[in-house]
Amino acid sequence: MVYVGIIGGSGLYSLIENPRSIDVETPFGKPSGMVEVGNINGVPVAFIPRHGKKHSIPPHKVNYRANIWALNSLGVKRIIAINAVGSLKEELAPGYIVIPDQFVDFTRRRELTFYDGPEVYHISAADPFCPDMNSKIYGLAKKASPNTRLGGSYVTVEGPRFSTRAESKMFRQFSDIIGMTLVPEVNLADEMSMCYSVIATITDYDVWSDKPVEAAEVFKIMKENESKVTQIVKDVLPLINQERQCHCKDRLKDAKA
């Protein structure tokens, strides 16, 4: 049984010891790729590359329901998601790590729930991320990089295009970071009563800024972020591979219509 799942980029493949690929069938079609199961730092994990092994799936076409269902079917109760994001705040410079605790949804065409009927559940989204995992990830992230923030709002846009300047200036009034892949991943994990946390790595300022980062600098920052994130993931796994004391396991309680 695998207790912890990881959703992120293909750079995390190198962490997995003795991986085996599992082809999981789901009621919602195929996941983004084969689920890779193996050990990281002595902890069994299940890994899904969100955009496919060759990064061929754009954010608005990711089969989020299949990905979450597949992990849950393997016994996963806690998910660490890795997201590259843009910054909406001057103080959150490229290279920063943010562990968000809120989100704003500006997606338009995505399948947001497992409960399309006849069963209907209305779960609370007041606190969508796992506070226990957030705290543990932050403690280790702060050691890996002093430029780390616990808490913040992640606005999710549909993609695959980036924001206009007008949109970006609007988003920064109520959010701190911006990306294309958080929603509906977090909603679906919550509906499965799974713990869910994000390690969001900032690669650049969004287009509100008059100081855009050059492409070469973005790639450099992404590489540096990848190194930091792999160390954080490796170190935090033993801390979260344990019985849950958080509220996440009770999300469906009293939620049925």
CATH class bucket: Alpha Beta
The CATH architecture can be named as 3-Layer(aba) Sandwich
How far is the first residue's CA from the last residue's CA?
32 Å
Specify the number of helices: 5
Tell me what portion of residues adopts beta-strand conformation. Answer: 15-25%
Approximately how much helix is present in the residues? 10-25%
Task: Provide the domain count.
Answer: 1
User: Element order, helices and strands?
Assistant: EEEEHEEEHEEHEHEH
Averaged pLDDT: 94
Basic shape: globular
Low-confidence stretches: none
The CATH homologous superfamily corresponds to Nucleoside phosphorylase domain
Counting helices, strands and paired strands, the structural category is alpha/beta
For this structure, the quaternary state is single chain
The beta-strand count equals: 11
Here the CATH topology equals Rossmann fold
Rounded Rg? 17 Å
Largest sheet: 11 strands, mixed
